[in-house]
Every structure is written in C-alpha cells, then in structure tokens.
Fold this protein.
Amino acid sequence: MKIFLDSANLDEIKDCLEKGVISGITTNPSLLSKEPKTAFVKHIKKIVSLCKEFERDIPLSVEVITTDPEEMITQAHQLVEDLAYENLNIKIPIGWEELAVISNLSSNGIEVNCTCLHTEAQCQLAANAGAKYVSIFMCRIKDIGGDPIPVIENTRSLLEISNSDSEIIVGSIRHQRDIFEASLAGGHIVTASYKVIQSMVGHPQTDVAIE
Ligand code: E4P
C-alpha cells in the first residue's frame, strides 16, 4: 500500500521523509494557505529541495490556483519550468472544460493528478483524458451520506477493464481506518495528513508491552 503525505508543511514532510514511510506528497491551495506567507513557488521549491536532500524524487502534486482553463495550462507550464522537478504532477480539478486541460498537458508530457473526484464517471473521464492519477475524495463522499467504497472498487475495475495506466489516489482521509478501507477497496495510493499517518503507529497495548 503506497502512502503519500497530504501536506505542505516542511517539518512534516522532512519528518516523513526521514522515516521513509511515504512514497509521494500531495499539496493543495488549502494546505499551502496554512504555511508561512512566503511566495507560493518559493515554498514549493523548499519542498522540492527536501525531496532531493533525501534523494527521494517521489511524486509531488501541486495544484493550479485558477479556475480559468487557459490560465491552468499557463500555470502548469510555469510550475514545470520554475520547479524543474522530474516527478512533478499538476493537480487539475475535474470539470468539462478541464478535461481539455488534462488532455493538453498529458499530451505535452506534463503528468496530471485530476482531483476533486467523487464518482466512477468522473474518474473514467479523467483517466481517458490522460490523467496519471485520479484523486477520489473519500470522506467528502461520506459527508453527504455517500459510500466511497463502491466508488473506489468500481473505479479500480473500470480502469483495469480499460487497460488504463491511471492510478487511484484516495484522499480526504480523516482516520487511519480510512487508509485501510481505501486500500482494501482497490485504491493504489492513499494520501493522508501527517497526523493520520503518525496515528498509525500507536496502540495502548503496544505501550503496555514495551513498558
Ligand atoms: C488530496 O490530494 C486532497 O487535496 C485532500 O486529501 C482533500 O482532503 P479534504 O477533503 O480534507 O480537503
């Protein structure tokens, strides 16, 4: 089971890289807004430096900060140029017009993580358009009374039926239980916060046993 760290916090990223437990990093505008108000790209460059410091050129997802499709393409190319990071994935939210952005970027060699997905149909369209990753928001589906497990299971089956190279990232994880449910349902990757990943190591009986 591949775990990505869902964070833009440098200390959290460094700690997880040191422990060797993550296979990638996902960021989003909300996470970045929690960090010190340095320039957006300057902060992402610090994340890139940490990945290189640990010789972990792992996948790093950075989301565009516009809703205009043309501007998304411009920002994507600018991020690729500014960051010069081999394993950079550009996060593009799902939408009818955004599918052309995904298709354009992926056909120009820029890897896309299509995000804000909540249905099999959205995932299939994103994969068909060329997204490397399709990010399903597990707990946001639950928030409105939905069941994310069939969405993950069905998406995995549909991607395999269509011989797609796209991988499912399950995000919107709020408890370690979500991580295992998402993985056992067929999620290739789960992206979780530092707090949730750290919670995976603890158990009261472990403390007793060690004591
Ligand atoms: C991951 O890529 C997503 O941006 C993130 O997990 C969304 O989580 P949220 O539902 O807490 O915003």
Summary: The two ends are 30 Å apart (CA to CA). The mean pLDDT is 96. Residues 6, 26, 28, 30, 115, 135, 137, 139-140, 171-172, 191 surround erythose-4-phosphate (CB under 6 Å).
